[in-house]
What we know:
The chain is an alpha+beta fold. The chain is 35% helix and 29% strand. It is built from 14 helices and 17 strands. A six-stranded mixed beta sheet has the order 9-8-7-6-5-12, covered by helices on one side. Strands 13-14-15-16-17 form a five-stranded antiparallel beta sheet, sandwiched between helices. The longest helix has 39 residues, at 284-322. The protein is elongated. The N and C termini lie far apart (86 Å). Zinc ion (ZN) is lined by residues 47, 49-50, 52, 66, 68-69, 71.
Amino acid sequence: MKPKTKIQIAVSRASKLLPGLSKEQIQYACDDFFIKKAYCTKNAGFCLECGEDIDVSQIVRKRVTCENCGEKLRIVQTRKRKDFDGNYYFAVAQLMHYDNYDFQVVRVFQFIKFFRKGFKHDLRIHEVTQNWYEASGKHVIYSCLINGFNGSYCLGEMEIRNYGNRGWYTKNYDITPDLYCFKSQFRPEYLQKGISHKLRYMTLNGAINKVVESKAETLMKAGYYEILANWNYASIYNFWPALKICMRNKYKIKDPSIYLDLLKALQYLNKDIHNSHFVCPKNMRAAHDFYIDKVDKIKYGKELANHLKKADKENPKFIKQKSNFFGLELQKGRIKISPLRSVYEFLNEGEVLKHCVFKGEYYNRKYSLILSARINNKPVETIEISLRDYKISQAYGYKNKPSKHHNQIVSLVDNNMDKIRKIASS
Length: 426
Ligand SMILES: [Zn+2]
């Protein structure tokens, strides 16, 4: 779009005065975004940085130093000979006075690295968007054409653009950066609210919208960007006492969603979430796994108790209905097939094979006979036979998938259908 208004003309001129990224800035971004790697098979490998072969006998604990370029590399086991890593977004925020306007500009650069065996890596950096916020509140977009989620398609030249609706999505030129440049400048009123170059996973606009809330401002000032970007306000409110303790202890939260799960588990277990012993564990992952496991066991225990209660209630009726089949036994080779003989056996069968023969109350089906095919007394597949037409209605193994013995099981049952018919009519 051609610049039309006075401010649009100012932006399109001012944008031409902005410098390219310096070597230092590019290095800073690359160090944050990219891990240096070697792709290896058992016998050979190459350095993704310079493309040269590496000596696989020199690999120690999945690491190696490239003899050609000297980079320390992490080993990835793969046969791939080419690949890419990206898109990462690097933001540079700066203040600019131009033509009587006071601008806060946020520029976003897309970083992608291409790799190919035998060639030096190819780093491509592409400026994709600039958001110009004027002191009076006016906002001008100078950008490539961006389609798709968070800049996944950036096309065309940088020019003045409009927000707009096209089809079912809103065009969004406000890409969320992965990292802000260490030299970024922000308006003093933003700095006061805790918005700085340390900001992560948030657009400037997103950050400004968040800090209108006082708890969010406190988190922003303490540098808890991951929490702000990841948690909703309800979680922030719910776990505010825990977050306050984290801030007091300068506790670092790298993985906000796992940390939220940990707090929820602690709350479920009635642990004191005002106590740093619980909310600031030294090894967060280990604490998470430990307490989640505890919660699972309690939930599982409760569920099992309920199931057993149900089985107690339902079992007499089931036995009365189906006990005439209990003598049935089919065998071929290692496979033994016999009916489930109690509701407790339905419960066990469903647990072992992770399907819903118990939860779906198959023991209550008057015109169904449920058989269990076993090897060494371990359930392999469960078979439902219709007592109306003496056909197999379904036969499934682990997680409702046919087992590798499926065909044998089905033919063994089919070949003995007469036996079942006889028992039913006796
Ligand atoms: Zn190398």
